[in-house]
């Protein structure tokens, strides 16, 4: 298997079918097994736990497992309130909070929930990130922007160690935003070649902005089936990426996932959020995740 400098890490992504009652067993299993992380998606109209609630629950129940969002929507939330949530989590569980933010929901039905001025979502995102960072890094913050005006914001406690803010997205504007404003990138629905090209573009954007992103702060969310990609998942992937065969984006089985991970590592990615697709046994998936992937961590 491919070797790479930097920390290769694997976490479990939870989907829409993960109800609140499922969470204790999942979190306990991952903590006990030595998994790196668990990730909560923004799925408002589903039984899934809210990402920030899920992170708080996980971090309070564990001592080493990290918790992240994959991804939470930032435009449509007030960034000072988000900063308070992130700062609180970081104080409760230092070095175990992994916030990843996105531009809008992948589900059209949920996009109206995160209301911003029409046609200005990207601009709101940029300003939200700027204000979020300012409030997380200092006290008595005043800010005059197009969308937010704040006087003497004083979110406490200011994290003793800066919290890395990662972003999702893969379009040209998203990659430029990541290079200019983010500490890392979590992609999805990209082939290894596309992911490698995205990483290189982010690096160019960061260099142009006088910034540098840590070389092992590039990751991707991947799906694995239990032997065959279900028809509904195949159709969803086709709608999401009509230009790509779904089998290139979703691994039908674990051997395929291993080969695909090698290709992503070769492309420069080291962080992987693995989610199950289909209606297989969750316990069996977690056991396979632990047995198959944790030995690949370095």
From TrEMBL:
InterPro entries: F420-G6PD/mer, F420_OxRdatse_MSMEG3544_pred, Luciferase-like_dom, Luciferase-like_sf. It comes from the Bacteria. Keywords: Oxidoreductase. The keyword S-adenosyl-L-methionine does not apply. Residues 10-239 form the Luciferase-like domain. This is TIGR03854 family LLM class F420-dependent oxidoreductase.
